[in-house]
Amino acid sequence: MRLLLLIAMTMVAFAANSVLNRAALAAGGIDAVSFGTIRLWSGAVVLVLLGLALRGRVVLGGPGRVAGVLGLVLYIYGFSVAYVALDAGLGALILFGTVQVTMFGGSLIEGERPPVLRWMGAVMAFGGLIWLLWPGGGLELSLVHGAAMVLAGLGWGIYSLAGRRASDPLLATGANFVLAAPIGFLLGLALPVSPEAMAPEVSGIVLAVISGAVTSGLGYALWYHVLPQVTGSIAAVAQLTVPVIAMAGGMVFLGEALTADFVVASMVVLGGVALSVLRR
Fold first, then answer.
1. CA–CA distance, 32 with 83 (Å, rounded to integer)
2. Cα dist. 181→11, 65, 76, 164, 176 in Å?
């Protein structure tokens, strides 16, 4: 039960990142790339301070470090570039579809053999997401921005798989952020932003700092605490709840409408996730 609660808390943190990102960008207070850079540096600062306060040190090495750092940079900036021009729903489908393939593939390579129910549940849950997020009307996909989201999903899958080797979640997550922050800063300077982007406003910067310091930095440390306790395939399927939680958060905090499609599709997603984690 405690592990289930920790996983639920982690998924809420991931969904909160999405809500904070949408709130900042929708208000025009910041562009997506600047949001990602501030998010990364804020997480690094908070995790370093926590590492010094709680562990008395900051560690930059450790197992899975290269994969963790590269995965984090790929995710943060692939995500930011993709949403310059990609529909939010389609972007989420590409992201989570890639995460599923990456994490299931990585788990199979490591020797895990997910049971049939887990495969069925994953297909059912992702089908519910397609129902929930597929954009209406004519589908227009920019190949460049779609590829950026694929890289983001690949990065997050790699980051998550690397977390299964973390011996100290707080120090490992801090090391990832500290090493990724300067790389991300240089990369962020070279990446394109939306043509209508303006200089970041205080409101956008504050939301980016909250996202980096709390829901990313602390949320990712919690994720690294959970990952060694579950299989890679369960970790992959559990993340399919994030868009559902994020949409619910948008209804509560951003005034978005509750629809019958959301209710039914959410039940399908959650039912698929439940089917995946059943023991028999």
1. 7
2. 23, 14, 10, 22, 8
Q: Which two tokens stand for residue 133?
A: 């997020």
Angstrom distance (rounded) from CA 96 to CA 20? 19
Contacts of 10 (CB under 8 A, 6+ apart): 219, 222, 223, 226
Q: What is the dihedral of CA 249, 250, 254, 257, to 10 degrees?
A: -120
**pLDDT at position 266:** 93
What letter does residue 134 receive in the DSSP assignment?
P
- Given a contact cutoff of 8 angstroms between Cβ atoms, the answer to whether 175 and 62 are in contact is yes
pLDDT tens, position by position, 125-147: 999 999 888 876 656 677 888 89
The 8-class DSSP code of residue 240 comes to G
* Nearest in space to 123 (alpha carbons), one of 280, 268, 279: 268
What's the rounded Cα separation, in Å, for the pair 218 and 28? 26
Residue 86 DSSP label: S
Handedness of CA 229, 225, 175, 202 (dihedral sign): positive
Tokens coding 174: 């801090």
Query: pLDDT tens-digit profile of 22-46?
Result: 788 777 778 888 889 999 999 999 9
CB 83 within 8 A of CB 151: no
SS3 of 58, please? coil
Tokens at residue 207, please? 């939301």
126, 96 in Cβ contact below 8 A? yes
Instruction: Say what the pLDDT of residue 198 is.
Output: 65
Could you say which DSSP state residue 136 is in? P
Q: Which regions in the chain score pLDDT beneath 50?
A: none
Tokens, residue 82:
């993709």
pLDDT for the residue 196: 54
DSSP code at position 213: I
Each residue of 151-166: b (16+ CB within 10 Å) or e?
Answer: bbbbbbbbbbbbbbbb
